[in-house]
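Bug #77: duplicate submission created two jobs. Keeping one. Sequence:
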Amino acid sequence: MTPRPILAVTLGDPAGTGPELLARALADPAVRAVCRPVVVGDAGVLRAAAAIVGSPVPVVAIPRIDPAAGAGEGVIEVLDLANVDLSRLVRGRVSPACGQAAYEAIRGAVTCVLEGHAHAVVTSALNKAALHAAGHRHEGHTELLAELCGVTDVTMMLVADRLRVCHVSTHVSLREAIERVRPERIRRVIALARDGVRELGVAEPHIAVAGLNPHAGEGGIFGDEEIRHITPAIEAAKADGFRVSGPYAGDTVFARAADGQFDCAIAMYHDQGHIAAKMLGIWRGVNVTLGLPLIRTSVEHGTDFENAGTGRGDPRSLIQALLLAATTARHRLHSTGSALRPIPPR
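Kept job's structure:
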């Protein structure tokens, strides 16, 4: 029997709703049945969040993750970084201190997996302004994770029900996004998408590629990027044995993918793919990073400062991120086995 995977779950920005969502999601029996979640962050912040949402599950600080020890039954385990001064925490406000705490939680969770103490990383929302104020000037989680893992060739995949969307570019200006529509990048994203969907259990996924221009350029009438860059990338991928087709008009391809006609769709830029996924419900989607040497899933929403401290945050995206990470990790465990090592006491 494949063991429940251990998930290193980041606390997120302490000033946002992330800690409250964690307190609710990690009390969900459906989550605890399929994984052993361990929060990486400040235990005091999570205890305060649990009190706000009225969670009945105790928060327990642990000095290390020991795969051979108990599985945290009946408690929420926190690998306590003790890096937030609760007396100075102001919820709903951008803070360099909270940006630094969020960064340290991400770094700690990544370390847990890379050093063999956990099977996957699940990230709560961070605030880019707070992250930048703390001196970490990354475009977002994806770029930060790539740096921490020492890789550059990554992309995000949004998963919302049957719809899966990968992106040629994400957090850049539209002008720069157009410049990034090049055959080599498109071919790499197709490969990352196929590998990512395979890990979700689809043996030979059909990848659809969106065009950049209206009506996929209409044969060059509305732009020639499809002719010069996108179609050559698709044909080269086909020659390499990929099941891929397109380019399809961006206003129809994602609906077709959501309908089950394709296993994944490639978006040419951020909003093209994100709008499609978030129309299905911002609280239902999951963000997956492909190309990392580890499994990483995340919520699809931001820090929701407006609701911080109210207990009204919606944990559905976080729950889906936890379940998807557990599914992917179990697939890898079944294929490769587990060789986790306990973290030495500090």
